[in-house]
Design goal:
Helices cover 21% and strands 39% of the residues. It has one helix spanning 31-44, and strands at 2-11, 17-25, 49-55. The protein starts with a strand and ends in an 11-residue tail after the last strand. The protein is elongated. The longest helix has 14 residues, at 31-44. It has a 3-stranded mixed sheet, with helices on one face.
């Protein structure tokens, strides 16, 4: 299961888009695989530049001050 916590998408130029996302995942043993899967989906959507931060439910901050 994946849960998006924070998502920012913006244009760097007329031909480049970038994305930053924080994702809460249930299985921390798959962090590398999940990151690669997300990056592949983003590439197919034309987003080659991304920053992906994965968190577990235990490490996720539920406050707006984090």
């Amino acid at each position: 299961m994946l849960s998006l916590v924070l998502l920012h998408i913006w244009s760097i130029s007329t031909t480049e888009t970038t994305l930053t996302v924080h994702v809460v995942i249930a299985d921390s043993t798959r962090m590398d695989d999940i990151t690669l899967e997300i990056k592949e989906v983003l590439r197919t959507e034309g987003i080659a530049h991304s920053t992906i931060e994965l968190e577990t439910p235990a490490s996720h901050c539920h406050s707006h001050t984090c």
